[in-house]
Amino acid sequence: MGRYLLRRLAIAIPILFGVSAIAFFMLHTAGGDPAVLKLGARATPEALAKLRHEMGLDRPLLVQYADFLAGAVRGNLGLSYRSNTPVTQEVLSRFPATIELAVTAMALALLVGGPLGILAAMRRRSVVDYLSSVGVLIGISVPTFWLGMIFIIVFGLWLGWLPISGRINPRLGADPSTPFLTVAAVWQGNWVVAADAARHLILPALTLAAWPAAIVARMTRASLIEAMGQDYIRTARGKGLSQGAVLMRHAFRNALLPVLTAIGLEFGTLLGGAVVTETIFSWPGLGQLTVAAISARDYQIVQGVVLLLAVVFLTLNLLVDLLYAALDPRIRYA
Amino acid sequence: MDDSRTLNSLVRRLHAGALSRRAFLTRAAQIGLAAPIASALAAVAARPGSAAPSIALQNGGTTLVVAIPQATVQLDPAVAGSNGYGDVLPLWDNITEGLTRFKPGSIELEPALAASWDTSEDGLQVVFQIRPNVSFHDGSPLDAKAVAVNFQRQIDENNPFHFPGMTYADIVFADVEKVAATGDLELTVTLSRPTILLPGNLAIFAAGIVSPTALQNEGENFGQQPIGTGPFKFQSWTKDVELVMVANDGYWGGRPALDRVVWRTIADDTVRLSELKTGGIDVANQIDLKDADSVEQDAALQLLTGPFLNMQFLAFNEAIAPFDNLALRQAVQHAVNKQNIADAAFFGRYTLGAGPIAPTLLGYDAGLAEVYPYDPEKAKALVAESGLANPSFELTNRTNSFWPLLGQLIQADLAAVGITATINGLEDAEFFDLLNAGQAQAFLNDWTWDNGDPDNVMFSLFTAPRAQTRMGYKHDRVNELNVAAQQERDPDQRVKMYAEAQKLILDDAIMVILGYPQRAIGAAATVQNLQVSPVADLTFREVSLT
What we know:
The complex is a heterodimer. Chain A is mainly alpha-helical. Chain A folds into two domains: 2-73, no CATH class; 93-327, MetI-like fold (Orthogonal Bundle). Chain A is built from 13 helices and no strands. In chain A, α1 packs antiparallel against α13. Chain A is globular. Chain B has three domains: 1-55; 96-219, Alpha-Beta Complex (Dipeptide-binding Protein, domain 1), CATH 3.90.76; 310-517, Dipeptide-binding Protein, Domain 3 (Dipeptide-binding Protein, domain 3, Roll), CATH 3.10.105.10. Chain B has helices at residues 3-15, 21-45, 77-80, 85-91, 144-155, 169-172, 198-201, 212-218, 269-277, 292-297, 326-335, 338-346, 376-386, 403-415, 428-436, 455-462, 465-471, 476-487, 491-508; strands at residues 63-68, 100-102, 109-111, 114-119, 125-130, 176-181, 186-191, 232-238, 242-247, 260-265, 283-284, 301-307, 310-316, 350-352, 392-398, 420-426, 442-448, 511-524, 527-528, 544-545. In chain B, the strands form four sheets. In chain B, strands 1, 8, 9, 10, 11, 12, 13, 14, 15, 16, 17 and 18 form a twelve-stranded mixed sheet that branches. Chain B has a four-stranded antiparallel sheet with strand order 4-5-7-6, covered by helices on one side. In chain B, α1 (3-15) packs antiparallel against α2 and α18 (476-487) runs antiparallel to α19. Chain B is globular, with a radius of gyration of 27 Å.
């Protein structure tokens, strides 16, 4: 097992190198000059040349990449072009808000997608099944930005039930960059802030949850149906177990494996996929930072985000594989 | 991270039967979540000034929440312009002030940190009397020496406080040769030629005066916690998200009525408007003009509009084909339906283009609109005269905001007279790359005045080097007039000079002056005294909430 983990970690290194190289060269060949953006439309060619030199952008790409790598292996990802603050600080300070959003969205997705999938599997070809299929189709195909806008207009503007954007009502005075604001407020017993922060979470989390909820529902349904057709289910039924017991104790457990894979991978996608949602809802997380950084050609920040997400993906994949072994005694890693 | 070791032991315990599978799952999941959380938390805790993220409630006081579409990134006024208006607005006459300022809602100059100023006979020296008894937010006093430090750091590239991105130094201090504190409260600025533009330029945000003590202490980090003299003090911010400033009790002009102003960044027009309509924010800057009517009709809201010193144009590059052909340039001038642009893109809140100088400025001449009236027939005749069979070109525009729409409207107008325009939509970064390389055949762009002087567009667009780079344009008489007008003290003479220069520019047909859009701010009906400024600043000094 230890050797397996070591091997996985060893594989992670070339993957991270590859990711960083691809991100670096894609960014730098995308066109657009960060110096021009920084100096604006009015800059003189001399000022531009000087700033390019100061930013190190006049060096060959390979030298720039080597320089980036040399810093990166020591945990130094450089300074943001836009604000001159360390990239690690900017990126990590935005991460908690994204995790908060992604975890909430995933919880919502499981809460909705799981039962829906089970129900659909139990009542195959019933109205419930068809309705859930339609729901899944919508969840998968509706573009996030559109769904977010609709939520804002319906629940925020028309019905006035929920706040429209941001993480907290600015009039309350709480710092919107507080990590895990909702949890922290509950922890401190600050119920006003906790309630307001939780209300701000709902719309973006719902928007973000649509896709994984659909995936979870579909996977649960498919793998439950497959499990229900197995011999051991017939045996369980033959023993005289109730339908619920058969389902939950025998079928569901076995059906969980593929669902778990889906959840693990979707969680990574959620972290990255928050880009659109965060931008619409002015949610101060990684996604919003990434969009701002890309349009300002703040290469350093984008690199930092890409690397962080790569690490998260690798970790999640590893976790899923380990959970496999735990759930299914037939799987052993050595 | 040492979670691999922890995981390892978990797995070992699982295999040894010491841990049920369920317990393993729970713990492994905890580790999985805890690892990124812990590292993120550790990094956040390491940030200066936020060691213990305690959540405090704002107690009492009036808070005004304003939303702007742009991000706030760094707050050194001398560098602010390099990241766009998100950085400029909170600073400009809110946190930092210059020696002069514009009266709210106008381009009329008034004294700010300078109580008065005098220009010498020969026009080469301007002596400013610094306002007495003013202190910075950090308590250090404002004197002539402090102002001199601020100016020198922008002019002198070897100054220890000269940071990358001081774009506006070239504009503000264009003709400044020397800055010296000639008394405790007396500052003498020596010019290299007798231009009259200095006092107006010093009202630009980039000339905002900051505390030299803070510069000394913070160095390049100054932009993370600005210290000025303004009516509001910087309190806290989350970059790109929210910035909080609070009333400066010791403000020399009297404490502002608002206790706190929170600047939020909300990029999306619809979201910003929805927030305004539901009371989430009090002021929405830059309302999309298509929504202006709905704000106006809402009893709980008010729409503030006004002229905005901005000019939109379609520029040609006469150095490369096909627009090295005068007749073709003139054909486009007659082919573009400006009224249609005003209606379709700006919902009527638009003044049709005349000359390069925008309305409300010295030298604006509405009559210049008659030089190239909309006349498709004449345009067709001019296309024929150009000798070009089926002329075609690439029309470059930015992909944000109303630019693609303008591109399409113009494309259709041109198609009607036999000119084929292919639209090349580019993001800002690539757009300016192409322009600066002098490779755009024709492009849509605009110019926003930084100060209230016609020089800002006349010199910057038609005489400065960018005229040649981007449009291949160089006209000796125009240059002569633009430079002379910078030194002429008699306004009537200046009007004459600009009249001639504008006429020459239009004769060359180097750009189609499309028009001058209005600016709209949406505000709650409770917001009092907020003014729409022609130079796009948003000051809260005199604003209150009922």
